[in-house]
Amino acid sequence: MAKTKKAPRPKAVTPRGFRDYMGAEVTERTEMLGRIAEVYRLYGFDPLETSAVETVEALGKFLPDVDRPNEGVFAWEENSDWLALRYDLTAPLARVAAQYRNDLPSPYRRYAMGPVWRNEKPGPGRFRQFYQCDADTVGAPSVAADAEICGMLCEALEAAGIERGDYAVRINNRKVLNGVMEVAGILDPADPEAFGRERGIVLRAIDKLDRLGPEGVRLLLGGGRKDESGDFTKGAGLTDEQAAVVMGFVEAGLDRSDAGRAPAAVLARLRDLVGESAEGRAGVDELEHIAELLAAQGFGPDRATIDPSVVRGLGYYTGPVFEAELTFEITGEDGKPRQFGSVAGGGRYDDLVKRFTGQAVPATGISIGVDRLLAALHATGKTKGEADGPVVVTVMDRDRLPAYQAMASELRAAGIRAEVYLGNPKNFGNQLKYADKRGSPVAVIEGEEEAGRGVVQLKDLKLGAKIAASATLEEWKGQPAQREVPRADLVAELGRMLAAHDA
Fold this sequence. Notes:
Elements: H1 23-42, E1 46-47, E2 53-55, H2 56-59, E3 75-78, E4 81-85, H3 90-99, E5 108-117, E6 129-138, H4 144-160, E7 167-173, H5 174-184, H6 196-207, H7 209-221, E8 224-226, E9 232-234, H8 240-251, H9 263-274, H10 278-296, E10 304-306, E11 320-331, E12 337-348, H11 354-357, E13 363-369, H12 370-379, E14 391-393, H13 401-413, E15 418-420, H14 428-437, E16 442-445, H15 448-453, E17 455-460, H16 461-470, H17 473-478, E18 482-486, H18 490-502
Parallel strand pairs: 1-5, 7-10, 14-15, 14-16
Antiparallel strand pairs: 2-4, 3-4, 5-6, 6-13, 7-11, 8-9, 11-12, 12-13, 16-17, 17-18
Helix pairs in contact: 1-4, 4-10, 5-8, 5-10, 6-7, 7-8, 9-10
Subcellular location: Cytoplasm
Catalytic activity: tRNA(His) + L-histidine + ATP = L-histidyl-tRNA(His) + AMP + diphosphate + H(+)
Main location: cytoplasm
């Protein structure tokens, strides 16, 4: 009789394009999102949690650079319906706004935080699951809502730990770009579908300005561009005259001096570029109003500025668009300095809810890339990428386990993270190794002899590591890493030790 072949053991590997988030990463993200959520709450926004799964029909065809609705998403068929994991937090909001429109206040102001999924080719730093943090206003047609979102984004970045001067919220308007393309002859108000391919290439080209520079954008507006690897990207095929009009728009925002980025100066250049285009003039007027509203709230060009180079890649934007760029330099993979780049983007999308209701519903919002913002905080030293573990109460005597648990309970009641060692207590050295691996700042030690005298030993593991790494013998004698304290003073003394670590 043939032996039954054993099923192979599963491989303990993370699926390609995904990652696991461990201890300190999760803690840091939670704390950062908490600070951002408090800013949103102060502005009157309410939290919303939606299902991770939506119908493909509800998600629509708005995934960047994707033509078919179920390409680029994780989708499956169920009872003749196609379902998919959400690829952003905006499409679910549009569904909620339509589904509960009779119950929600109008305008409806909400924020949402959570993972999204994209079935795309993974790469360095590019994962198929990542976190977003959104805030949106649905039902407010005035650009005052856009200005409020931009001001709130400034405060959210500062609350997260990005200092003023290290970021810029850059604002543009799709209507202005449409006016420029009308002047360039690639947009016909009487036939909005005409020149659609050319406009799509123009949008993507301008969106790559930071990476390709003005000359790279100019090549993509014309015949095309060959990159360093030899791959050729076909351009929009504009004439030199048409390309010059678009490049005038792009270059209107390249002067980053105080005078060059002053709203009045940028708006004057844009008015010249849109000429007689009614849509273009309306877009410039909206930008002017946004700048006035931001200035009234104290958000000057040092925090939020008009910048024509911002276009955003998504096709559903209908008016103002904005992007938060971090302006400090980091060292790239090639060893050269470069700016950190964008960590948030958004804009007005007045037609998204209309897909469900048939009625125009104005909306505007912003989305923060949580992983990128955390990476920026690491780069500036605002977060350490690691956090202290709990205080470990060691077990010197199995029979005294209730006493050790009582110690841990007292510490927790005082707001101090603490745990009792629950492994095999026979080898005390292993207990200290465990505490080191946990990143514990202090270990509590109480054997039979200490218990008899009513004292405990506090071993300062962080100080001990520093002394071992750098201190001289005399310094080591002057800073003992272990001290004896009365049992009654355990909580107070530990609090003082932890406070000294944080100082």
